[in-house]
Amino acid sequence: MIIIKRMFNIIKLNEKDNIGIAPMDIPENVDLNIGIKSKTKVPYGHKISTKNIKKGEFIFRYGQIIGISLTNIMQGEHVHSHNLSFSEFERNYKNDFDHQISNNINNELFFNGYKRENGASGTRNYIGLISTVNCSATVVKKIANKVNLKLKELNFKNIDGAVCLKHSSGCGMNTTSYGMNVFNRTIEGFKIHPNFAKVYVIGLGCECAQISLYNNDQINKNVEYLNIQDEGGTKEIVNKVSIKIIDQLEKINKIKRTNIPVSELTLALQCGGSDSYSGITANPALGFASDLLIDCGGSSILSETPEIYGAEHLLYERSTNKLNIEKIEKQIDWWKDHLRKSNSALDNNPSPGNKKGGLTTILEKSLGAVSKSGTKNMVDVLDYAERIKYKGFNFMNSPGYDPVSVTGQVASGANVICFTTGRGSCFGFKPAPSIKIATNTNMFNKLEEDMDINAGAIMDSEKSIEEVGKEIFNKVISVASGEKSKSEINEYGDDEFNPWIIDPTL
To answer: Is 0.90 surpassed by the pTM of this model?
Structure first.
């Protein structure tokens, strides 16, 4: 009888690494492809030691520190939260700021979008209803519902619908605080977003976020401002605004898509429900797509400050100036102080789902998250919801919570979103279309109706990072031109608007 002995593969990402990644469940006491045996069971996506590691030694992945060993770890053992912990370490980076900005911009690619009167470029043609305060949330929802019902009757092909941007804030705030400034920037960013053909900003009348704070642009005739108290109550304002919008639908429908250079696209780079493969497949592929967009003169925005912690030095190496580095350093210091007040810390991340997927520390998670940004120079560092000023790769300060982070990116000007996920995330965000990218084939097959692209093909050795990156880039152009993403088909995006609430509620 012939006995076939199975060899189990593990993935080692860098010569400096003292762990590998299991692309399958690995049993105890089996041969591994790197010439060692497994000492313990290792779950799919988790880490396994490739050498003996002493207690207190740093553990490396991607050639970078992801934590410190809590015990002596034998070669072939499972490495996770039971024997690996977060540890501070000295960041080392080199940057002489002698970065060459390429002038070889590819101007030959176009998407089919909406050119606005002010020169901005949209990927969708929505009508926006923005509440300045939670007290007007019901009103904007009622108006949007009435308009969308009418649109179903009329079947106007050039209107994507009415979006109500409702939230839980806008009052009980310190009107002179940093938090109020951030909130105001967010409303301003959505008010002028190029994916809106017409916007109504609606308040109650007595809140901290007065509509007078936003009614500061007499030139923009596409934005109107109303208060419920001034208009005579709920029914009056709902009827008044609904009739106004319905009367304007024919005019809005006449706005047609036209060829616009791809340089007018701004891509929000997001990840949620990450797993151990995020930094191996989907995130670096998205980074490659981001680089392709920047080569065409476009822009991308990476955010989530708590999820670059431990990998921020990799961004510093790509900064075009010292000021950008100082901005991120100040942002991280602010976060440490902010979390300290609530007896928390940056290393409280990752989430339970992240850990189940094989991630152990924030350092490990951050290294994977930063790979979404590609390799291009970091031209600017923005505060939350701050308008993008320079074409190219930008970093924006934000929390790691996806809806809050994306709200800031779209307020900054992002008109398309790419969202990578390893655990499976059902996410959409009106008015910007969201493309979801699976990190592994198992999850893609299970949630195919929610996933646009399977980056798990990289792990399956069917495609390279570059090939999936090009697939993502082409999908961005196609969706920007009107193809519906899976999140749009499933009608996600009406409830994800979530401005960052920083201050205490008074």
So the answer is: yes
